[in-house]
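Proteins fold reproducibly. Take a sample protein:
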Amino acid sequence: MFSPQMYESFAHQYERELANFYPKGIFYFHSCGNITPFLGTIAALRGLRRLHISPATDFEVAVHKLGGRLAFQKRMRPLDDLALCDARTMRLRIEEVLRGGRGTSMELDPGPILDAPLEKVKTWIDVAKKTIGSR
C-alpha cells in the first residue's frame, strides 16, 4: 500500500523515534503486511534483533538482505500450510522454509490457528518438531 518513500515519510520516522526513545532501542518488529520494499529501512531501527516475516513478505529477499543480521520469526500460512494439508505436505512446506532460511536464526510460527482443528495443530507441531530435529 505504501511506496518506500511514503513509508519513510509517514511511518518509519515514528518507529525510529520509538526506537531512539528506549535505552536499548526496539527488539522486535512485526507486520502482517508485505514489508519486502522496506526491509533495509526497518533493519536500520536501533536495537532491532528479531523481525516478523509474514507470508506476504518475500522470505528469499529477507534472507538475502538480512539473514546474518537479524533473527526471523517466519510465519507460515495457517490454512495452506496447516489446516488444509496432510502431514506429508506440512513436512514439505516446513522443509521448504528451512531450506530458504538456511544459515539464519529463525523460528517458525504456524500463524493464527484459532479456527484450525486441534488435531491438525497437534499434527503440525509434531511434524515441525521432527522436521526441525532431523536437521
